[in-house]
Amino acid sequence: AKQAGRNGVQTFDLAMGSETAAQLALERDLRAALTRGEFLLHYQPVFDVSSGLVTGFEALIRWAHPTQGLISPGTFIPVAEEAALIVPLGTWVLHEACRQATLWQVSRAVTMSVNVSALQFEQPDFVKTVREALRSTGLPPGQLILELTESAVLRDPDAAVAQLRDLRALGIRIALDDFGTGHSSLSLLRRLPIDALKIDRSFVQDAAAEVMVGVAVTLARAFSLHVVAEGIETEGQRALAQALGCDGMQGYLLARPAPADEMPPC
Ligand code: C2E
Ligand code: CA
Ligand code: CA
Ligand code: CA
């Protein structure tokens, strides 16, 4: 069953009894969309807290459906993951985001953050895929940031640590996304060869944000990690990120995700 969701964006209700049929139909449509090139990337600027300057962009995928308009990733990424379509889709995202980042090199080097799903990260040739995206687009590795969630490293932490080392050896950076929402332990965090934490917006927007964000910043400092606050929607949240010593911030108050040609100059 399909329902019109928030902002008229379509969501698929998979819990209606016919989930198998609905899921299969969506899988089939996703496969076709990939061959037809119906995916596109929006970008959301990341701001430096102290200078207020744009330091980079996060690539966020959308599906330009021929009849239903723009479909948000929350609707199709889980299905793409289940059908392993996320692997070719993720490779496309990586190339497209790196290509776009090279176009933004003209004035000042900016970072490009790319979301990576657990299944993508688990592919034996993932490091090779990243190296190939850098090589074919010519993006300097120092400008690429891969965003991984805790679930991507939890299944096999030893293998994850080894692969993260290989990725960083390419010269790219790693951010742990949605920090605080997963189940990783303090000792795992200590072991992970990463560069940044992104504090989930549920913490930034929590009634006890001062405590939650404060703890995350303290942890980030202890492990010498860059820390970015996500989901800044109000002046109060911006002030808090600043007061608590976050390095970067992202959110609707500052800039919404939009096509590349609508990005602010930097
Ligand atoms: P995420 O990586 O945590 O990305 C942040 C999400 O929060 C984005 O939703 C963004 O549009 C939204 N957001 C940004 N600022 C605000 C704010 O101030 N308030 C609120 N309420 N939301 C804000 P989006 O674009 O719908 O993406 C949802 C999720 O889909 C992403 O969460 C990420 O997990 C996944 N995703 C998006 N693009 C990709 C991709 O290329 N590959 C993979 N594997 N996952 C992706
Ligand atoms: Ca992200
Ligand atoms: Ca996030
Ligand atoms: Ca997320």
Automatic annotation (TrEMBL):
Residues 23-266 form the EAL domain. It comes from the Bacteria. This is Bifunctional diguanylate cyclase/phosphodiesterase. It comes from Deinococcus sedimenti.
